[in-house]
Task: structure prediction
Amino acid sequence: MDLAARLGLSVPLIQAPMAGTSTPALAASVSNAGALGSIAVGTLTPEAAVRDIAQVRAATDRAFNVNLFVHARCQPDPPREAAWIGALAPLFAEFDALPPATLETIYPTFAGNAEMLALLVDLAPPVVSFHFGLPDAGAIAALKSAGCLLLATATSLDEARAAGDAGIDAVVAQGWEAGGHRGMFDPAAPDDRLGTMALTRLLAARSRLPVIAAGGIMDGHGIRAALDLGAVAAQLGTAFVACPETAADQAYRAALASDAAHHTAMVHAISGRPARCLANRFTAFAETPNLPPVAPYPRAYHAGKALNAAAKAAGEDGFGAQWAGQGAPLSRPMPAAELVALLAEEFAAIR
Ligand SMILES: Cc1cc2nc3c(=O)[nH]c(=O)nc-3n(C[C@H](O)[C@H](O)[C@H](O)COP(=O)(O)O)c2cc1C
Result:
């Protein structure tokens, strides 16, 4: 499939959906500049999702992507969660704060979420993408009938094949280098930690779906390399974090521009699932010997967000979920439309 032609893109580039960081303004700017802009609604209420989709539509008449989290339904585990809260308690105490007494499932999965499915079928965004897993056959059929092109993250050939079997249209090959949450379907399963180069080539050669490469791609050279490996497009997240249109706070922008960008770490202490973050106090804490098992996702994130809020209130910015990929030192802060134009120019210059 010629993804760029199907979506009317002038450059084979997708701005990654980034829950908490991407915004409707970012997505619309990217789409207007000729790439595919994305919003992430995985952590939003249905009302907020409707609002964000409307905001994108009001600012562009081009294709855009709406992203959802399809993790397994969270099973609360009170003893494990109590132990995890206890492990974080000294950090809260440092900021004269108390940890939450109990943890909550701070957002639901899209799996079985009839309300979110109904609004998506109704609003029919041009592209819908899934992270952490696949929805059921009925949801996939309904979204396809509504005319949505469907994408899903895969971190392995097995996940890509499952996506193909389920009727997904193209797969996002997310390498170990990638910023943000690793999209593996089962975080408890063994992880071969394939890098973007090996995974992209493997999926291009062995899965029957068109492949979108993601992880550590920061410039036109990276996009060209992805296409040379057989990808139909590249998906870039970290490259867009420093755009003024994102919701990244000043501390996150400063960290991205600092030495921390050279030392990203894959941690699951922040949210309960592995995710790549700029080196900060939270990633250092995650290395503490003999920590109890982290609470399940996304209930651990309830504690992680509370700790960040308490730390920030006391002037400490080192507990943010400052997600970034290994290409972070190559970040170039500039408006999204300028970045898309620069990436397109660099890509076109390499033949
Ligand atoms: C700040 C941030 C937030 C992210 N949030 C999401 C998300 O909500 N949904 C998703 O599918 N991927 C998310 N990702 C992962 C991206 O889709 C993509 O795999 C990754 O950004 C590629 O690696 P790169 O950051 O090195 O470009 C996020 C990445 C970052 C950097």
The chain is about 40% helix and 15% strand. The first strand starts at residue 13 and ends at 15. The two ends are 21 Å apart (CA to CA). The CA atoms of residues 127 and 149 lie 5 Å apart.
